[in-house]
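FAQ: What does a multi-protein file look like?

Like this. Sequence, then tokens, then the next protein.
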Amino acid sequence: MTDTTAAPVTVPGTPATARLLAEAARAVDAPDLVLAVSRNGVRTVHTGGSAEPGPVPRELMAYELGSASKPYAGLLLARLVAQGRVRYEDRAADLLAPGFPVHPAVRRITLRHLLTHTSGLPGLPADFYPQAVPRWSTDPYGGYPADRVVRAFLRARPRHRPGTRWHYSNFAVSVLGHTLAAATGTPWEVLLHQQVLAPLGLDATRVRPGPDGADAVGHRRDGTPVPALDTGGFTAAGAVRATPLDLLTFLEAHTEGAAGSPTDSSLATALTEVTRPVLRRGLRHAHTHTLTWFQHPTPYGPVLFHAGATLGQQAFLGFRPGTGLAVAATATRRVHRADTFVATVYGLLTEAR
């Protein structure tokens, strides 16, 4: 249970939603916690946690999203496709290193394969672990730069034929980022800002740490602070940092009826494209995925979501297409086996009418 010595703060939306968030917050133990809901653009934000609040309100601090960064990569790809700059079926190796000799299976890997975790690549490169293990709890990614990610891809031997099996891969989505940068001649950070962050008005979203005091500090399970995450060459897979309010803005753009819907046709097309189911996997094909979101059925219609975790933080993003409901949440404690964060926030998305 969260120690509420530091009094929680609720930004009023609707009284019923405020009560729902306050109840949910009691189930999550973290130094800093933000639960945020948008219903057709009407926002309710609850903040709390066991730590004393700092000079910057919790809802205005930037939190590490970890793997919840991937929907940003997916929307970027979808917009570039809508603009005709790349195609989903373009082969990554041809864009990244034209003419370079690669394994036949690598040659067949497309941009769609990389984003949908069907490339046949492992979760991380095999040579990632020797350099990461000695600093696993402090900085496992920082010593593996972009050029090394690219080299690992070009010499890879995929475990399965591309397009035949689903296997979650930070490696693959990172390669996607480097491939899009090569195809457009634009650094990933600049490309993401130009195509996604700026058009959606996400002024408090970035891929690098901000000024002192602007970023939330993560914690281990015992409450010990951890340093800011350095994703090294895996930027596209997990480097996004954002305030909870910006997270709601991002999610609202994916729901119908929210204020400020994009007028740019390529962005509107991309936002629609990333909500369409593209594959099923698992026993009886029970698990559905869009280009970038996990999709589950509920009595109120399908929900799309993605969670993420770093060394000391967690994030959850989700929405119900066509209903105007969006849920974003952040917490500054490392995930552990008995952690209730994801289940609690998922409940807000799937049970709230």
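And here is the next protein:
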Amino acid sequence: MKLRATLIGFTAILMWSFLALFTAASGKMPPFQLSAVCFAIGSLPGLAVLILKPSRLALLKQPARVWITGISGLFGYHFLYFTALRNAPAVEAGLIAYLWPLLIVVGSALLPGERLRWYHVTGALAGLCGSFLIVDRNGIDFNGAYAVGYGAAFLCAFTWSGYSLLTRRFDAVSTDVVTGFCLATSILSLFCHLGLETTVWPATAFEWLAVAGLGLLPIGAAFYAWDHGVKNGDIQILGAASYAAPLLSTLILTLFGFAEPSWRIALACLLVTGGAVLAARDMFRRKIQPAVAAE
């Protein structure tokens, strides 16, 4: 059961790896408008389930802390992420924001029934080094003029790691509530768009297809899968494995001609894959031991 949930959580990481590709192909829609549209699309699978099974509507009745955690996590993360990229270079902001997997692995030691071991931390740090190689293409020059952007990026990392860790404490809460989180995030993003941005719609059918892909996968099904994974799977392994997202994203961009292959990608692949395997040591051990016992 725990292995299955962990694998479902990992599908979210796979879907997030297509975020950059779909975003690059989606045209020039402003970020909050794109967020509003994509989260509206992302709520559709959940709405379909609720329409087909009206009895599940009762599962949406949850304590206020559940709704505050969910909406703050989804909307807060994207709001801070967009703010970071508007006020600091994308390379530095992206690197800082992607500290959240490491924070999940380390913070998981505070959760009931979890224990932080050296290989969890080592695996996460290896993944962080791999991510660094991907985003640090031309060197990093931190500048105090970008303090607002850096601060937003740090808050971004703490927001998503905090959301993921707190979600684990709501393991009895149905994943159906993610539908409500997506709808609320869409509405809040719409208000931000109307107040801060100029509306720009996709110019071609291809761009619309990319927007639909964003809404259905990275900003949609991924959140349902992640919710199930962090509640029922191995959150330490998921935290370390999350470093596969920037790696896979880079490989996908390279495959589709949006990036050039280099030694950095090869070395990053070794660090991220090795780190994930090391962090997943407990999972492999649990699978090997029953097999030995059966013999």
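Q: Is there any per-entry metadata?
A: Some entries carry free-text notes. For the entry above: The CA atoms of residues 30 and 104 lie 30 Å apart.
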